Amino acid sequence: MDEASELRARLAAAVHALNHGAQHDPSARLAANQWLLALQRSPQAWGVATSLLVSPENPPPPADLLFFAAQMLRRKIQCPGAAGGGGAPPHVLDALLLAAGRFCYLGPPRLLTQISLALAALALRADGGVEGLFARMRHLPEPAVLELLTVLPEEVVQDQSGDTGVDAAARGRFTREVMAHAPSVLEFLLGQSDNAAADDERNRRVLRCLLSWVRVGCFSEMPPAALAAHPLLTFAFNSLQVPFSFDVAVEVMTELVSQYQDLPQAFLNKMPYIREALLLPALANRNEKIIAGLVCLMCEVGQAAPALVAEGSVQALALADALLRCSLAHFILESDAQTDKRNAAQELFSPVFSSLLDALLFRAQIDTDEHDTDGELCIPDGLAQFRMNLEELLVDICLLIGGSAYINKIFSGGWVLASQSFAWKEVEVRMYALSMGMDAGNLRIEDEEEIISAITHALCSVLVKELRKSLLARLLCSSYSAVEKLIDIDRDQSLRQNPAAYTEALNFAVHGLHSVVEEFGHKEEYGALCVRTFETLSSAASISTLNSSYTCDQEPDLVEAYTNFASTFIRCCPKEAIVASGSLLELSFQKAAICSTAMHRGAALAAMSYMSCFLDVSLAAALESRECLSDGSPGVVLAQILARCGEGLMSNVHKSATILQQLAALCSLCERTTWKGILSWDSLCRWLQAAVKSMPSEYLRQGEAEMIIPLWLNVLRDAASDYLHSRTADNVRNDHAYMQGKGGRTLKRIVRDFAESHRNVPMPCPS
């Protein structure tokens, strides 16, 4: 076997180990990830990745191996300095185009998407890249052209936080060159739309491509009358009647309405038809997807042109329900607070919204007595989604009628909370309405204080502990199904197609979980709820895929949400919850160690922040019970996790002085206690030796390996002493005292020097 074939075989084995093998052997997965990172930085990566993508093998290599090869090329194109030095060789463009033509029919859709993203990244960085790409695009099959045209505009609006080597001038040039082709792209899409009527999948792909170009302003130079009558708008509107492409059609229409001020009138003219043909049947069939999409679109129309609605036309009246729910309250509240017009409107509409609140509370009640296996009352998915859609409206109503009136309305009806016979459904829905003002975080301070007082009063008025616990559980029950939907990629692919909407939804969901843990996690009786919340988050399919730095770069928002929640959990939850969550914490720590190597700065920092929090809590537990070794104590559980994960941690974070100092302090402390059998200074020595040994010989200078270990151990011992000194009673208030001692400063210097001296050293693929 020649060298190239051997490298391909080893790459295939590493990718398989990362994605499929060694489910119960995290060290094997970590080793595979380390090997792949080294390959990524090497010059050989160009050759092995392109050879896989153009391989004439029949059948072709496994789909996950091909996906990894395309992803590796994209990362090397985006970050040439951090991934091997130099730009892409000339043959890379040919290989990617050939692969796009081949795998648009043979491979899974995500492979073609990754190849197209690599081509777009290449066009951004090459002189004449856009023109050259469009010139050669005509030779590709139509599915490949569609996908490439879909991702190309995304480079125009892409967040640059994970991107290097592209200055503002180059990105501006790229934008101008891409937009120059907008007319021809619209003609191409028009031709594709004519052939898409009988093909739902093609219909959806054409809409996705149109959405990408609408977001970058492809119609910005078109006269308003021509835009309103454009055949592609008719195509998008007609696609609202196609269930498979409905959600993308809604996004296209919503984006157009929000960008172009003349379109709301054209949409209003179609409102009676939408109501009769789409909305009423969806309401009759309880089709939540259609209802939610139409409400979103109608609210966008109302927000874009409230003056049109105020004219009171037949079309405007057909839109009135959606406007009352979202747009009108928002419009009133955003008016100038000093004007008589706003005050008059607020006074006029307050009774309307007060009545609307009554109706919404009735509609949002649980309408079932079904219980799950744990005995908790179930909230149907449709009701949970309806409640999520109500958040903005409830906040607007609270702001419009005032916090006091809102709370009085919630508490009307004479609750008898001290009794065991109160109506659970009424109590639960009112608790939900109170907590939704709070989650939004944009209420006045006095309103927040009143709502917090009301929630506290409601909980404390329940005298029976078990009933109080059950009330809180039922209050939080709707969060679980909502979070599962938001973070589970298998359940809502449409949400993941829109990064901005996905990020907003994910942040909302995780923020809700932090309400749960920060407010109630420290109370012993709610520990089981917090553990269940952690289990829900950890069991999501998208979380399970965070097993390599490559995936972390693709999902930085998910990494940050997961690690930030884990930090809150370990800081706030009672001891019993920590002990019960040992396996969840170990899994989260392993994933954080891998995520800390991500090139995306936000994801890497979030992962390291969680590991630092984990070590800090572990050290606090060791200081508190250093002479008490109990298998059921949280400190022992955390120490056991570190003992099993320490080698992987050292390999991944050897360039983080803070984490190294915390780890050294913990090992040094355990060395002098009954915990020595779990964790000791010898543990740290073994991990450091293993980390240095795992580095390729070409990465280190001659004799450097033998010098590093004793030098770093001496410095780590001094730094550990500084850290432990900072945690004594006299110094504990200074959070950063440990970095100000001589040992801490020295450690920080040698870590920085090591990173700087090896920043540009090529790291060939290890043998």
UniProtKB/TrEMBL annotation:
A single GO BP: protein import into nucleus
Residue span, Exportin-1/Importin-beta-like domain: 110-253
A single cellular component GO annotation: cytoplasm
InterPro entries found in the cross-reference section: ARM-like (IPR011989), ARM-type_fold (IPR016024), Exportin-1/Importin-b-like (IPR013598), Importin_beta-like_NTR (IPR051345)
SUPFAM superfamilies for this protein: ARM repeat
Protein name: Exportin-1/Importin-beta-like domain-containing protein
Organism annotation: Leersia perrieri
